[in-house]
Amino acid sequence: MHTKSKLIYHGSYMEIEFPEIRKHRFTKDFSWGFYCTEIQEQAEKWSSKFNTSIVNVFELKGIEILNVKRFEEYTDEWLEFVVNCRSGKTHEYDVVIGPMADDTIYDYIEAYLQGQMNKQKFFELMKFKYPTHQMSFHTIKALDHINFIESYQI
């Protein structure tokens, strides 16, 4: 069986030949994991917040055999998932793929959680956001499906 491969990118301040999953003080959209994107410019933007901006390029192969959760767009289910993950809950997926919540979106999520914004208003505001993509790897098994190719400095 032939599995197709694609390139994914990770913005950082250093070369990351061997990705790892680290538990941080702050949880992210899809919980703790190693985050990448299919959008090269987005990885470059992520890395630009560091003094040394490095984009790591990986080959992604064969994730169809993993337990993958996919969100095609901002939906009720995505919102619920992000709210749960950002409040510290974990999940059983090897990989989660979907749009990301940037700082503005996080403010909207906070407003929604505080009851200052309803779901309809939340999604109305979300429609005008630029497209984003994130892919998070949550297990060692998932990390085995990405291979480091190269890194470059911005």
Percent of residues in helices comes to 25-40%
Strand content: 15-25%
In order across it, which strands form the biggest sheet? 2-6-5-4
Largest sheet: 4 strands, mixed
Q: What sequence of helices (H) and strands (E) makes up the elements?
A: EEHEEHEHHEHE
Distance between the termini: 37 Å
| Number of beta-strand segments | 7
Tally of structural domains: 1
The low-pLDDT segments are none
Radius of gyration, CA atoms, in whole angstroms: 16 Å
Find the structural class using helix and strand composition: alpha+beta
What global shape is seen? globular
Mean pLDDT, rounded to whole units? 89
> Treating each run of at least 4 consecutive H or I residues as one helix, how many helices?
5
Index terms:
about 150 residues; four-stranded mixed β-sheet; three-stranded antiparallel β-sheet; 7 strands; globular
Describe this structure in words.
The chain starts with a strand and ends with a strand. β4 (68-70), α2 (76-86) and β5 (95-98) form a beta-alpha-beta unit. α3 (103-113) packs antiparallel against α4. The protein is an alpha+beta fold. It has one domain (5-12, 24-153). The strands form two sheets. The chain has a four-stranded mixed sheet with strand order 2-6-5-4. It has helices spanning 40-47, 76-86, 103-113, 119-126, 140-143, and strands at 5-12, 34-36, 54-61, 68-70, 95-98, 134-137, 146-153.
